[in-house]
């Protein structure tokens, strides 16, 4: 079964530095999405990258996708304390027009002031 | 900006009791989902719902679970006879196409 797995499991950096998180998956995908979750809160959609795209930007976020390696990376530039959260990649499987997301374990990002 | 809402934010129930978790998806969305996250674990897919019927369900979504869209706005998850292991955060999500938007979750505690 397809499964997103993030790496590293935890990352701690200084404010202003860039943070890179990686995600690997096992089977073919239609899209890959990244979500953020603040402690005990809901999932916030960050960005979606389609399987035929290689790179996508949104503000300080940059996502890459390498379907040959079945991997994706999320780069957050010029990190801020408010970026402290868990970040998840989610891959999809479209069944009968609906879409089931499979989440990884997440990367816990801590931005130190 | 439209958002998915869920009530209650926290539900405490005794083992064996029935609970109903409620969600109001974004109004023009067509696909609806429930996920759960046991503390410290991954977010897991439970069920997807489209055109008033279940599209797909996971192994977790056994006979004790059911979903309903009773009117044009609400989307509910019912757990008939709760077990201790049902304690988790339950997230509702909705989408038009591929991007799923999640609600803030309901923390279910079964004692």
Write a brief structural summary:
Chain A has 113 residues and is an all-beta fold.
The major beta sheet of chain B can be summarized as: 7 strands, mixed
Query: Which sheet architecture does the biggest sheet of chain A show?
Result: 6 strands, mixed
Order of helices and strands of chain A: EEEEEEEEEEE
Give average pLDDT of chain A, whole number.
Answer: 90
Report the oligomer: heterodimer
Q: pLDDT average of chain B, as an integer?
A: 94
Largest interface: pair, residues per side: A-B, 26 and 27 residues
End-to-end gap of chain A = 40 Å
Quote the beta fraction of chain A: over 45%
Identify the overall geometry of chain B.
globular
Radius of gyration of chain A from the CA trace?
A: 14 Å
What structural class do helix, strand and pairing data of chain A support? Answer: mainly beta
* Poorly predicted spans of chain B: none
Helix coverage percent of residues of chain A?
A: under 10%
Please, could you describe this protein's structure?
The complex is a heterodimer of chains A (113) and B (111). Chain A has strands at residues 5-7, 10-14, 19-24, 31-37, 43-50, 55-58, 61-66, 71-76, 85-95, 98-103, 107-112. With 113 residues, chain A is mostly beta strands. In chain A, strands 2, 4, 5, 9, 10 and 11 form a six-stranded mixed β-sheet that branches. In chain A, strand 9 (85-95) and strand 10 (98-103) form a beta hairpin. Chain A starts with a strand and ends with a strand. Chain B is mainly β and 111 residues long. The mean pLDDT of chain B is 94. In chain B, the strands form two sheets. In chain B, strands 2, 4, 5, 6, 9, 10 and 11 form a seven-stranded mixed β-sheet that branches. Chain B has a four-stranded antiparallel β-sheet with strand order 1-3-8-7, with no helix packed on it. The interface between A and B is medium-sized, with 26 and 27 residues.
């Amino acid at each position: 079964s397809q499964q997103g797995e993030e790496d590293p499991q935890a990352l701690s950096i200084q404010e202003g530095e860039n943070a890179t998180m990686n995600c690997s998956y096992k089977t073919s995908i239609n899209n890959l999405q990244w979500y953020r979750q603040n402690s005990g809160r809901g999932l916030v959609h960050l960005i979606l990258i389609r399987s035929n795209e290689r790179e996508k930007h949104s503000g300080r976020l940059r996502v890459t996708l390498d379907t040959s390696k079945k991997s994706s990376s999320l780069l957050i530039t010029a990190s801020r304390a408010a970026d402290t959260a868990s970040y998840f990649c989610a891959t999809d499987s479209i069944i009968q027009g609906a879409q089931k997301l499979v989440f990884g374990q997440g990367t816990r990002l801590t931005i130190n002031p | 900006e439209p958002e998915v809402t869920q009530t209650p934010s926290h539900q405490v129930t005794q083992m064996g009791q029935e609970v109903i978790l409620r969600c109001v998806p974004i109004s023009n969305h067509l696909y609806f989902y429930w996920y759960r996250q046991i503390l410290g674990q991954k977010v897991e897919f439970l069920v997807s719902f489209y055109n008033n019927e279940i599209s797909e369900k996971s192994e977790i979504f056994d006979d004790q679970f059911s979903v309903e869209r009773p009117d044009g706005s609400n989307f509910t998850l019912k757990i008939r006879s709760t077990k201790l292991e049902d304690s988790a955060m339950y997230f509702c999500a909705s989408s038009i196409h591929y991007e799923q938007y999640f609600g803030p979750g309901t923390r279910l505690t079964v004692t």
